[in-house]
Amino acid sequence: MQRLALFDLDNTLVDLDQAFAIWAIEFSDRYQLGCEAVERIIALGQGRPHREMFFAEVRERFALAESVDELWRNYRQRMPHLVYCSPEVKDGLSRLRVSGWKVAIVTNGMADNQMGKIQQTGLSEIVDALALSGIEGTRKPGRMLFEIAAKRCGMSLTAEGGGGWMIGDSPIADVAGGRAAGLRTIWIDRGVWPDHDQEADHVVIDVLQAIEILAGS
Ligand SMILES: [Mg+2]
């Protein structure tokens, strides 16, 4: 199997939940919503991964004057500055590349938000390629975004000896999507999908463990 490692971004290479919690505190301060609002905003965010729906609900619940578009745009401008990628993770990706792996990020989300996060964390300078749904117009778990990433690494998922690995926290977008695209998969189990069936080749608790598995394969 070719040495191709495709990584999800949010809650895989970066801790989005942690960044979201910081953002919720800032947001609550800015609109003077009070301490108890932070937990409610975080709970709303967890149940609504699509941010347009999330901001529609937040706007209504807290009777905010700004439009959903404005609230969401402000969020996308701020989030790239709140996410963090640990030096250990960046080192791990660099070591994979030194040992002959091609490494890419395959992520769903708006182009400005996702690209901002990839640039601010320095990940853009480490990986071989990017495939962002907001730029390409196609999303995981669909096969096409994985194909685009592989091609940008000079590889193909369909060629003889093709394949590779997909590593991510979503049992649907990353694991089921990766499997359907002919990839082996490593699922990062963050404990938020307790009853979800998934058929990953490996289950780990963080991306460093996933990188170790790849390095030893
Ligand atoms: Mg994710």
From TrEMBL:
Q: Which Gene3D superfamilies match?
A: HAD superfamily/HAD-like (3.40.50.1000), Haloacid dehalogenase hydrolase-like domain (1.20.120.710)
Keyword Metal-binding attached:
no
Gene source species? Spongiactinospora rosea
Tell me which UniProt keywords the record has, alphabetically. Answer: Hydrolase, Magnesium
State a single Pfam family of this protein. HAD_2
Q: Which GO terms describe its molecular function?
A: N-acylneuraminate-9-phosphatase activity
Q: Which cofactor does it need?
A: Mg(2+)
State the protein's name.
HAD family hydrolase
In which domain of life is the source organism classified?
Bacteria
Please give the PANTHER family that the UniProt record associates with this protein.
N-ACYLNEURAMINATE-9-PHOSPHATASE
Per the UniProt entry, what are the Gene Ontology biological process annotations, in alphabetical order? N-acetylneuraminate biosynthetic process
